[in-house]
Amino acid sequence: MLTGITLASCAVDAQDRYLAALSGVAFLETKTGLQVIAASAGENALTRFGYDGALTELDTFRLSAHAGLHDLVVTDTGLSALARWGNAVRIDANSFTADGQANLVALSDTASAVRNTAGLTLDTLNIADDAALPLGDVTALASLSDGRVIAGSAFDTGIALLDASGTVTDVALAEDGFWHNRVSTIETATIAGKDFAIVGASGSSSLSVFQVLEDELILTDHEWDNMMTRFSGVAELATAQIGGMTVVAAGGSDAGLSLFELTESGDLVHLYDILDTDQATLADISGLDLIAQDDGLLLVASSEKESGFTVFELEFEFEKPEPALIFATPSMQTMQFAPPPRLSNHEPDLIVEEPGNWIEQHLTQDFMIF
Question: What are the UniProt keywords, alphabetically (predicted)?
């Protein structure tokens, strides 16, 4: 369960910094430690920070004027920043590389959010919009590990499931019970072998969860923002897993964000809300990311209105497994516990039974400490 939230660190805009009105922010794991990458569409700039409990600015990269930097994309090799006219930038632990990945929109293990009124680009395929598809104005994309893509539209009502070859295999529309307005963001998660898609819609301030089968989308939950939550105008989603628990963060124009648990049955369970303060950057959220670290999660958020970004530490506690019960048996003279992995100096007990004197059974418990 979630037990605590701490505002751990923040980065603010300053002279020779490009942190005003950020368009996105994301974590990047490297061999030398955790990094935070901040993207500024207005400045066409990317800034790298190291994070070890505090933020340290490492370097900055600027694209050419009018490059149209608009998104950070997670890939299996790190991060990419998307821009117009083939100005995509690969981001690794030590460098920014503008290698001209033209039309990079959705790849395997990639999630992005782009706008394309003519349809969407999938690898080298162009999937055109038509009357039967909700692809008139693609504003959100997410992919599954097998290469399938889920696309959402802000102009048409609905989302579409495409296989790895670009064939549309299913659509979810309002008439199917998917009540929403203006899909703005999509994230995916896998729980116990089941694939799920969480869909945020800014116009309806709603979150919808779909179980994604091989060629079908099944609606499992639908939540509206209310007086007890903080995801009105939802624009960004982030997911991470810790201790067998899948956590979802959702934020938009509600001066804060909401945290949920996504269950194995596809339900969203409200955990907590983080409100905007003078020290945080949660007004009109433009970027969210979650990452598991040790026994907790780190959450980073950026804002369209407020300069800089904020890192929060989320603390969790999980129930320890029940201790095993071990009984002595008549045929046993000596029983030695096999030592399980333990963090304490506790040594297992030794039980000795004299031959023929086994009427009185001895019950002992051995605790595994995690």
Answer: Plasmid
CA 6 to chain centre: 19
Task: Give residue 348's domain range.
Answer: 323-370
Answer whether residue 347 is part of any domain: yes
pLDDT surpassing 60 at residue 348: no
Alpha helix locations (H) across 177-335?
none
pLDDT at 233 over 80: yes
3-state secondary structure of 230: coil
Element spanning 213, H or E: none
Produce one character per residue of 67-79: b if its CB has 16 or more CB atoms within 10 Å, e if not.
bebbbbbbbeebb
Torsion, Cα of 250, 252, 254, 259 (10° steps)? 10
Burial of 103 (0-12, 13-18, 19+ CB in 10 A): middle
* CB-CB contact of 41 with 47 (8 Å): no
The predicted pLDDT at position 291 comes to: 97
Using an 8 Å Cβ cutoff, are 254 and 280 in contact? no
What is the chain's mean pLDDT, rounded?
80
Give per-residue pLDDT as tens, 189-224.
999 999 999 999 999 999 999 999 999 999 999 999
Q: Which residue in the block uniquely carries the two structure tokens 């805009």?
A: 13
| Domain-embedded: residue 214 | no
Is 143 within 8 Å of 124 (Cβ atoms)?
no
CB atoms within 10 A of CB 281: 27
Percent of the chain as helix, strand, coil, to the nearest 5: 0, 50, 50
Number of domains in the chain: 1
In a domain, 342, yes or no: yes
Identify the pLDDT of residue 8: 96
Of the segments 55-59, 105-109, 123-127, 346-350, which one has the largest average pLDDT value?
55-59
